[in-house]
Amino acid sequence: MTNKRAVWLTVCFVAYIVVFGAWSLITPDRKLSEFENRALAQLPQFTTAKLWDGRYTSQMEDYLADQFVNRDMWVGIKSDAERTLGKTENNNVFFGQHNYLFERFAAPDGLFHRNVESIRTFAKRHQDTSVYMLIVPQSEAVYPDMLPPYASATSYSPQKVIDHTFQTLKGDIVPIPVLDLLKAHRQESVYFRTDHHWTMRGAYYGYEAFARAAGLEPVSLNALASRVLSDTFYGTYYTKANNKHIQPDTIELLEQPLPPYQVCYSDSQTCTDSFYHLDALKQRDHYAVFFNGNRAWTTITTSNPSGRSIAVFKDSYANDFVPYLAKHYTRIDMIDMRFFRDNVDDYLKQHQLQDILLLYGAKTVAEDDIFKWLN
Amino acid sequence: MVFSSVVFLFYFLPFTLLIYFAAPRRWKNLALLLISLVFYAWGEPVYIALLLFSAVIDYANGLLLDHFSDRPGWKRLTLIFSLAVNVGVLCFFKYADFLIQSMNGAFGTSVAPLDLPLPIGISFYTFQTMSYTIDVYRGRCKAQKSFIDFATFVSMFPQLVAGPIVRYDIVEKELGSRTITIEKFGYGIRRFIIGLAKKTLLANNIGMLWDLSHSDMSNLTTVGAWIGIIAFAFQIYFDFSGYSDMAIGLGSMFGFHFPENFKHPFISKSASEFWRRWHMTLGSWFRDYVYFPLGGSRVGKGRLIFNLFVVWFLTGLWHGASWNFVLWGLYFGVLIAIEKLFLGRFLAWVWPPLSHLYLIIAMLLGWVLFALEDMTSVNTYMRAMLGFHSAGMINDSIIYDLRNYGVLLIVLIISATPVMSRFVAAWNRRVSWRRALPIVDFIVMGGLLFISTAYLIDGTYNPFLYFRF
């Protein structure tokens, strides 16, 4: 190596590591990454015990990597490098056609079967009420042709999860199949492209199926007023894929004329007069516009004269579904088992809730260890 | 701490360079020693005592050997003591649980395993200190009088964790006095960047394909099994040789010449040649300190087989405390024995592509033993490779993987062969183009460093922190 080359390499290399290292130290720490939609590691607390067993140093490494200067830029460069290599995925999110993103779904393990058993135990205890169950498949079940070629072979079929659950719980619950209905209406954007949720339009078809099963007369789609809330929505798939070349999504609101109602949230003890939290549009996650995210429980009281009431055990798929129910129920309680830790039966009895609907994404049923709390 | 991390590259390395180059010449070894201890303590604060213990014992043994230079009996006793301590430490911390479990399995006893975490780099530094005492005993090098210099040799951080195994005689002179030039420093940077890129861009990425391919053994197809083990071969080669490159590069920045550890092993034409190109410092260690003392190849056939058995049993065992590593070592021992007896002459005579193919298939079958630690998986995997598995030849998920990793696989094949260095040499011969080469090289190095940084940073993506809903 000639002297001139060595000098250039040395100067540039040393400058590179010193400048980026120091720059990262002086830039203020961020609590969370909007781009990746996750909390970033913070400066670890020093204790001798933590130093001794190696936890301090490993937390320190996470901290320095998470708070590296221009982290979002580096993350984007990695995603671009993966695409340049011809990869059709990043961090287990597939880059589909027409700006669709999908997440690889791992084959369920024993937890899935334990979850179904927990639901059965719960349903058997409530045989005197109607226990409805609606499982929302991931978008890949409705748009399989949008996946990259051969990608579906590396991902488990959500339909299998739904079929197995309904088959096992036959007689204990009233199943509400939605997959065929969603497929029939797939041209109408029933799912977000960059997020794992169904759209409010997709949720309408879920509502229609539920209403039929529960003996209610569903509101006609034509009777709903459509309003676009956002056309700059980047969902959870986007934040995992870090692919900056994907077009943003649109959030559409389908509103029906309703008499005044009240929504009360469990944790904040606050009540509002709308399902929709428009301030969420100023944050990253626009889907939070529906009920401002997820709470242990949320109570909706309407001036509907029917006197009917329902408990909706749910994950976030219910957030753009439940507004449709206000037409038919006087009281709706949404219960999120990820946060709810009271006795479920006591709660149902105390509030004299008549119907029960379990509304979950297929991934939650297969992978989330939350159904044990039902019993 | 590993070299391929944000904390090393952007914090530890700048501070190290600052301290090392600010220190006056006679304090440089002390500076390097203290830096190395911090490096070691970063991940293993407890075992630093073991490292220092090892250094003190062998420093003292070196002085004793010197002291007893004309009393052969005492000299021999000192050597035996030193080897016993080194092998003892290694056995206790690395092999105790393996021995206990093997014994429990064989005799139906139920002795509880110790569950000690493996001290980082123990297999490397005990081998280095053993080479020192043996060489002093043999009179090949002089005992080191300065403890600081000796401890610097034992704990020197570039090669502490994953080699190359730097024998004392190689760095003896440079420990005493070495010249640090900007040319060596520049060479070191270049070597470090190449190693970093091998680790972060090639090894880590193809490692994901290996993980995918053996995650679901029941759906293992024949093509999938071959692709999977090819991915593993590339992963381990680029991981290990990348780490050696980084070590050699860092050594060069500090003024040391470390020995080469890999020389395009995948282009070998026989198992014997493979081991002259793969982990060369380990191979030569076993050759000089085990195989030759046993008589080497200049013995009768029976004794040769025995010698090969001992060396390859130990080589296998060195890689990990588990029977599959022993099997893997013996597998190569058998191949090399057969080659020594008759196959070698045939391989040298036959059309070269055939001998290359022989080595590649033999090596890949060997990696199955190495990569899968339990024998049931090895059995299933081998059956799938040979087409005796129910999942068939190929399925859609393999086609998907090939589409996703096809480009990377081509890059890996090119990088594993001497094609690039031949290309550069050819370029250099063209007088009119020669001037552009340094500039192109500079841009390539900058690009590799930049993209490696991006992979280092996104490599920390932690799905548990992700709030999904």
How would you briefly describe this protein structure?
The complex is a heterodimer of chains A (375) and B (469). With 375 residues, chain A is an alpha/beta fold.
- How many β strands of chain B by DSSP? 0
Category from helices, strands and their pairing of chain B: mainly alpha
Going across the major beta sheet of chain A, what is the strand order? Answer: 7-6-15-13-14-12-10-11
Number of helices of chain B: 20
CA-based shape of chain A: globular
Largest interface: A-B, 65 and 62 residues
Helical run tally of chain A: 11
Oligomeric state of the chains in view: heterodimer
The fraction of residues assigned to DSSP E strands of chain A is 15-25%
Radius of gyration of chain A: 24 Å
How would you describe the overall organization of this protein?
The complex is a heterodimer of chains A (375) and B (469). With 375 residues, chain A is α/β, with parallel strands linked by helices. Chain A folds into two domains: 3-68, no CATH class; 99-374, no CATH class. Chain A has eleven helices and 15 strands. Chain A has an eight-stranded mixed sheet. In chain A, strands 3-4-5 form a three-stranded antiparallel sheet. Chain A has a two-stranded antiparallel sheet with strand order 1-2. Chain B folds into two domains: 6-178, no CATH class; 185-410, no CATH class. Chain B has helices spanning 6-22, 28-43, 48-67, 72-107, 122-138, 147-155, 157-160, 168-176, 182-215, 222-253, 271-277, 280-291, 301-318, 323-349, 352-371, 375-385, 396-416, 419-429, 431-434, 436-458. The radius of gyration of chain B is 24 Å and the shape is globular. Chains A and B meet through helix 1, strand 2, helix 3 and helix 4 of A and helix 1, helix 9, helix 17 and helix 20 of B.
